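New to this. Help decode both lines:
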Amino acid sequence: MFTLSRIAAFLAAATLTVGAVALMPASAAVGSDAMQFPPKQAFSQALGSKQAVGFFEEKNGRCHVTLMVAEAFDEVNGRMPASAARITTAIEPLQSTMVESAEALSLKVTCGADARTVSIETTVNSVM
C-alpha cells in the first residue's frame, strides 16, 4: 500500500514529467493520435483540472497499468496535490480502458498486440 509520503514523492516526480509533457510532439495533444510507451516508462496527461500519471508492466501476457490521478500541480502557488487516487488494472492485448473527467476529457489506455507497449490517447467527450 502506498503511504502518503510515497504518493507525494510520486506526484513530485510527476510534476517534473508534466514539464516534459509540454515538450511532447503535437501527437500528444487532445484528440490526436495515440502516443506509445514501453514497459515502466512513465506517462503523464492533463485531464482538465486533474493530472494522470502512470506506467505499465507486462505480466502474464497482459498490460498491468498503474495510474495515479490527482489535482494538477498549482503552478501559481507552487502547491502539490494533497492526495491522489491510485488505479490499477490489467488490460488484455488489443483492449482498452478509459478514465473520464467531469470536464469532458478522457484518457484511453490501449494494450498493444503483444502486451509490450501501451498507447495513451486523450479525447474530448461529446457527452458526459
Remarks:
- Residues 4-22 form the longest helix (19 residues).
